[in-house]
């Protein structure tokens, strides 16, 4: 990278206050502690809900629902105890993706953390085309949390197609987790491979794989320390299937992909299966937006 990379100073947690986002909340708290970063919890309210609250003249009582800000503070306090006192709460109304991007830009957040939710406001926000809007629009990485937090991230895989986006994802991951060992995973499929001579075909594949591995590990943008803690795994077969198999077999905590930001996440590796990867991936997923000139 052209400048020294530092851990995030501000983390934005996107939550819908449901139990489905509790895992994202726990992970955001763990990362904020690890990096000594400020944690901002953001909740995007449906404009209809806020209008109803503003025009509700009912006297305060135990039957009256608190404001969205009060409700969010209460939920955080209930779930986190005294830790909630150190989380800044931001509640705004509008389109979830656009509003979150606006908050992240205004606050100068270095990472957006969210969870998988379905059939609720945030669930609709992070699925389908809107996830591409969030990734394309955010210069900061986006972390999608699936798993319960039982430990800091320990086993980390960076999926690669040997593009600049993949290299930048590796460099960003290295700066976030400078003491962790990393694995670069590349899977490829060769059309009509069944018609090729087995001996020549196997030798050609091994030669190509060795060449690719050397290309990565000798890149001048990788310092000796990063080379020393990075393994390269290259496999032949369907990329999305092999990636999921490897993640499950190796008990991977975090998978990282680089996004070219052209409408599909990590086009060269997973193409149209991006939505399936986000919903069904074993472990958590970090999407790093590729920014030309930053590698």
What does this structure look like?
The protein is α/β, with parallel strands linked by helices and 295 residues long. It has 2 domains: 10-145, Rossmann fold, CATH 3.40.50; 156-289, 3-Layer(aba) Sandwich (Rossmann fold). Helices cover 41% and strands 20% of the residues. It is built from 12 helices and 10 strands. The chain has helices at residues 22-35, 47-54, 68-80, 96-107, 121-126, 129-137, 164-176, 198-217, 224-228, 239-249, 267-270, 274-280; strands at 10-14, 38-45, 87-93, 111-115, 142-145, 156-159, 182-188, 230-236, 254-259, 284-289. Strand 6, helix 7 and strand 7 (182-188) form a beta-alpha-beta unit. It starts with 9 loop residues before the first strand and ends in a 6-residue tail after the last strand.
List the helices and strands and how they pair.
Elements: E1 10-14, H1 22-35, E2 38-45, H2 47-54, H3 68-80, E3 87-93, H4 96-107, E4 111-115, H5 121-126, H6 129-137, E5 142-145, E6 156-159, H7 164-176, E7 182-188, H8 198-217, H9 224-228, E8 230-236, H10 239-249, E9 254-259, H11 267-270, H12 274-280, E10 284-289
Parallel strand pairs: 1-2, 1-4, 2-3, 4-5, 6-7, 6-9, 7-8, 9-10
Antiparallel strand pairs: 5-10
Helix pairs in contact: 4-6
């Amino acid at each position: 990278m052209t400048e020294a990379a530092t851990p995030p100073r501000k983390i934005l947690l996107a939550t819908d206050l449901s139990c489905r986002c509790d895992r994202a909340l726990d992970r955001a708290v763990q990362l904020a502690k690890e990096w000594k970063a400020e944690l901002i919890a953001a909740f995007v309210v449906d404009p209809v809900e806020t209008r109803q609250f503003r025009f509700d003249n009912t006297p305060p009582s135990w039957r009256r629902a608190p404001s969205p800000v009060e409700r969010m503070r209460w939920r955080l306090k209930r779930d986190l105890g005294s830790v909630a006192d150190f989380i800044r709460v931001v509640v705004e109304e509008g389109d979830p993706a656009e509003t979150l991007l606006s908050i992240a830009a205004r606050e100068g957040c270095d990472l957006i953390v969210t969870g998988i939710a379905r059939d609720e406001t945030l669930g609709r926000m992070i699925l389908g085309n809107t996830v591409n809007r969030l990734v394309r629009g955010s210069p900061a990485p986006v972390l999608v949390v699936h798993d319960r937090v039982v430990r800091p991230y320990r086993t980390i895989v960076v999926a690669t197609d040997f593009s600049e986006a993949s290299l930048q994802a590796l460099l960003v991951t290295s700066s976030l987790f400078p003491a962790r060992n990393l694995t670069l995973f590349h899977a490829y499929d060769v059309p009509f491979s069944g018609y090729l001579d087995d001996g020549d075909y196997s030798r050609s594949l091994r030669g190509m794989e060795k060449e690719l591995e050397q290309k990565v590990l000798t890149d001048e943008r990788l310092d000796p320390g990063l080379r020393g803690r990075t393994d390269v795994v290259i496999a032949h077969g369907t990329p999305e299937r092999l990636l999921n198999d490897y993640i499950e077999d190796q008990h991977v905590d975090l998978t990282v992909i680089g996004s070219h930001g052209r409408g599909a996440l990590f086009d060269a590796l997973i193409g149209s299966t991006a939505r399936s990867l986000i919903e069904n991936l074993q472990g958590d997923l970090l999407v790093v937006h590729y920014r030309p000139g930053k590698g």
